[in-house]
Amino acid sequence: MLEKLPENLKELENLAYNLWWSWSRSAQRLWRMIDPEKWEEHRNPVKILREVSEERLEKLSKDEDFISLYELTLERFTDYMEREDTWFNVNYPEWDEKIVYMCMEYGLTKALPIYSGGLGILAGDHLKSASDLGLPLIAIGLLYKHGYFTQQIDRDGSQIEIFPEYDVEELPMKPLRDEDGNQVIVEVPIDNNTVKARVFEVRVGRVKLYLLDTDFEENDDRFRKVCDYLYNPEPDVRISQEILLGIGGMKLLKTLKVKPGVIHLNEGHPAFSSLERIKNYMEEGFSFTEALEIVRQTTVFTTHTPVPAGHDRFPLDFVEKKLTKFFEGFESKELLMNLGRDEDGNFNMTYLALRTSSFINGVSKLHADVSRRMFKNVWKGVPVEEIPIEGITNGVHMGTWINREMRKLFDRYLGRIWREHTDLEGIWYGVDRIPDEELWEAHLNAKKRFIDYIRESIKRRNERLGIDEPLPEISENALIIGFARRFATYKRAVLLFSNLERLKRIVNNPERPVYIVYAGKAHPRDEGGKEFLRRIYKVSQMPDFKNKIIVLENYDIGMARLMVSGVDVWLNNPRRPMEASGTSGMKAAANGVLNASVYDGWWVEGYNGRNGWVIGDESVLPETEVDDPKDAEALYELLENEIIPTYYENREKWVLMMKESIKSVAPKFSTTRMLKEYTEKFYIKGLLNREWLERRENVEKIG
């Protein structure tokens, strides 16, 4: 790649291989100028640079506009990377030990498809904000050959899953090499075998993400396939992935001579890392009790779901067999195995994480309460309210999710300081200074862009299926409601379809038109979720709902960015309290989109009576039985009596609510706030614990 770059454009390669461009608008304009069509299709600078002709690059090297933008982008990138007065450096200058973040998936950009949904998107935003704040954080994950699936919807609304194979040379990452220039390889014990994993490095601003991959010639076919698919449902492959992530991740740190200060387990999937660490400490001479306590006092565990299917369990003898090589010559096997044993006699990855962590949190205050009840068997005899699970509510990376029009308005009326200090509430009071007509115009521009996307998406699908019919004609002045998320049944995507006659009246009023846009993927094995998708699609094809109810296929980061800013209302109606947090509504709110949500997850903390609506009774307790018909009735009444009349009859009130939505949500639900909370409540305490506990005279005091 470097060879064909003109001398005055050599730094394009460094820019392409650092995902800082994914939240830099000037960098994105730069890639768009090189090849607009490929940028819109792939959003992948590496692929663009590999495929662009030398003639095109030579022409750009003499284009004054391009060179000016290139130099501006390079200056901003250099300033960002070389800054020393980051929040972490200013507040904790004495700490440089690594915080190690581990997760099965990372949703950083469309160009790196190693994510499926909310967990991965959150992990991606976590890394971006860690970079912004200057945390000494590195991350570990897996590289998937096929990533998650590309979704197509056929003529009857059935989901078709396509698993594309990605060329690693076209992804924005590079092989991690040692001092001799060889790609780093770690050896991981799986079954009775030693599996080799090569390592790739992804740069996310200042943060490095290491991805382990077994698909190369030094492994036999069985182990090469371990990283074929994200969340492989086959137990043998699934547990192999988790061993690779957890134990392999720790072996990578050892290879890199990185002694972690704190390990952060994002869900239970990486929890085998705790077994590897305990084993290592015991081999250094610590007792099991001492080793466990050192690991516990330096491990953070974030649990993300109250849905039982989200917590991996395996038969004990199956796990023991998968760890045969790991336990070879180790005499305390039973002690380690018992750390994962649950009340049903299975090996539970969440229980393993809970028992080997002392810093534990749910992802909202309500979810922390639900988690205490859910995992009370791990703390037998401890009153539920005293179970040590905190609530650290999720956030979103505002630099990624706030659209271009809003960014310009915020720069003008808040000052560019909002970009670095998104968590400071006082800054956001400046939203009140934005003239109503300017805010509304910015919102309409975002809607126009999303409407164009809707038409283009439907056009592509129609061409693929040989369908010849008119595309929807949607005015940006019409009310657009968005529903986009994973099609799990508890999220109740079909709640609005409980009374089709009533819905027909809502969407077909010529004086107050309403459009409802759905998007989302069902897990390949979730037949209930797939049936919900089919049902919505079939309703969308009925004459009374045609081009009023719209279903978009293949929801991904690119579509999400358009959708969370291109609708008027963000609809969220899960069964309470199944939505642990939710983050899409935060993204929407920061763009001035109003939430209409059940009182669950983050909305319990986010709703203030002036920034959106609650569906149903906001005083419902977590254990109250859910009443779907009652919630559907509440949703219809909300649409008919409040949302639609306010939108069409009281623009002043609507814009006032938009402003309230932005200024109440943006600071409180940013990953800047979230990372600072993790740092102050967990990371720094863990770093202090490790320094103290690893002194022999202190660890011997452990009871």
Topology:
Layout: H1 12-16, H2 25-34, H3 36-42, H4 45-51, H5 54-60, H6 64-82, H7 87-91, E1 99-102, H8 118-133, E2 137-142, E3 150-153, E4 159-162, E5 174-175, E6 185-190, E7 193-204, E8 207-213, H9 221-224, H10 235-255, E9 262-266, H11 272-283, H12 288-296, E10 299-302, E11 313-315, H13 316-322, H14 333-338, E12 346-348, H15 349-355, E13 359-362, H16 365-374, E14 390-391, H17 398-401, H18 404-414, H19 417-420, H20 425-428, H21 436-465, E15 479-484, H22 500-507, E16 514-519, H23 527-540, E17 549-552, H24 557-566, E18 569-572, H25 584-590, E19 594-597, H26 603-606, E20 612-614, H27 628-649, H28 651-665, H29 671-693, H30 696-699
Parallel strand pairs: 1-2, 1-9, 2-8, 9-10, 10-13, 13-14, 15-16, 15-18, 16-17, 18-19, 19-20
Antiparallel strand pairs: 3-4, 5-7, 6-7, 7-8, 11-12
Helix pairs in contact: 2-3, 2-6, 8-29, 10-11, 11-12, 18-21, 21-24, 24-25
- Average pLDDT score: 95
What's the level 1 CATH class of the largest domain?
Alpha Beta
In one word, what is the shape?
globular
* CATH level-four homologous superfamily name of the largest domain: Glycogen Phosphorylase B
Strand content: 5-15%
The helix content is 40-55%
> How many structural domains?
3
Let me know the number of strands: 20
SS content category: alpha/beta
Radius of gyration: 25 Å
**In angstroms, what separates the terminal alpha carbons?**
59 Å
**Count of runs of 4 or more consecutive helical residues:** 30
Query: Uncertain spans, ≥5 residues at pLDDT below 50?
Result: none
Query: Would you tell me which CATH topology of the largest domain applies?
Result: Rossmann fold
CATH architecture of the largest domain: 3-Layer(aba) Sandwich
- Major pleated sheet: 10 strands, mixed
